[in-house]
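Possible race condition, two jobs.
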Amino acid sequence: MLGWSSPATVGSASAQETAQQRAVASLRQVLALRQQQEHQSLTTLAVLRGRPPQKRRCARCRSSSMKAPAVESGLPTDLR
């Protein structure tokens, strides 16, 4: 034998390597989900700011530059 503990371990991954591969795969899935959520949030933010989602430039946006819309008093039935 060439220093291996058993022939069964030759060419196979250890339990730790398998666990690490599963963890990386899981993190990649989570990352993809978070990127999709970020895209959806930025698109929503662009729409709320009155800008086309295709031209969103929210990397430079600051919440201090956003203004809340004016809310007028009245009853909801006045919206017709």
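Job #2 (started ~2 s after job #1):
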Amino acid sequence: MLNHGPAAMGASTAGEPGYHAAADPTGTRLAYPMAMKTTALSPIEKLLELYYQPLFRFATLLSGNPTNAMLLTQRTFRLAFDSSRTLPVPTNVRAWLFAILFNKFLEDRLQGSRI
């Protein structure tokens, strides 16, 4: 299974000092500044670190396609961050993110989207 998200970052083989690299399912290498790895994580980065992999696996199970799963997972985080101000403080963030992903998947299926 492909490894995606912030946890997938490894040392760059391109000889670029100061950068970590990760690959997406299309084979494109994405470079991230090394400082992202060594500094304290923002709340958004913590959410990505904790929940990207489980959400991606669930999206892959639903869509059956890693590329579509990656798009669905990214859209889930975008929708979550856009509506995070309305989220009550004591909540189960994991369940909330999975509900967003599943509802977005169903919405896309009903509209005849490719995901």
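Residues 76 and 99 are 9 Å apart (CA to CA).
Logs attached separately.
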